[in-house]
Amino acid sequence: GVGNGGALPGGGGRRYTVTVQGGARVADLDAELGRRGLMAVASSHPGVGVVGCILGGGVGYASRKHGLACDNVTGAKIVTADGRVRRCSGGGPGPGPGGKNED
Fold first, then answer.
1. pLDDT given for residue 93 in this prediction
2. What does each C-alpha distance from 73 to 13, 21, 83 come to in angstroms?
3. Rounded to two decimals, what is the model's pTM?
4. Could you point out which of 41, 74, 83, 89 has its C-alpha 20 to 30 Å from the C-alpha of 102?
5. The FAD-binding PCMH-type domain covers which part of the protein (predicted)?
6. Are residues 8 and 53 in the same domain?
C-alpha cells in the first residue's frame, strides 16, 4: 500500500514524503499521487515493485531533474532475519558513511 508520510517533487519546488509498504508497485504509487497532482521519482515502468525499483536505482521520467529514486529515500523500517524491526536513515545525500540506526 501507499500512504502519506521517499521524497517527491511538488509544485513550486515543494517536496513531499510518502510511506510505501512492501509489495506496493510503482503503478500503485503513481495512481495515489496522481489523484493529488503529484508524481514520484521512481521507475517509468508501472509493473515494478517500489522496493525493487529503489534497489535498482530507480530511473524514471523525473530522474534528470530530481535524481534517482534511491537518492530520494529518507529512511527505511525493516525487519531483520531474526525478526527485529529496525528503523534506519541516512546521514546525507548520496552513498557513503553517515547512516544511523534509530533503534
1. 55
2. 17, 13, 23
3. 0.68
4. 41
5. 1-103
6. yes
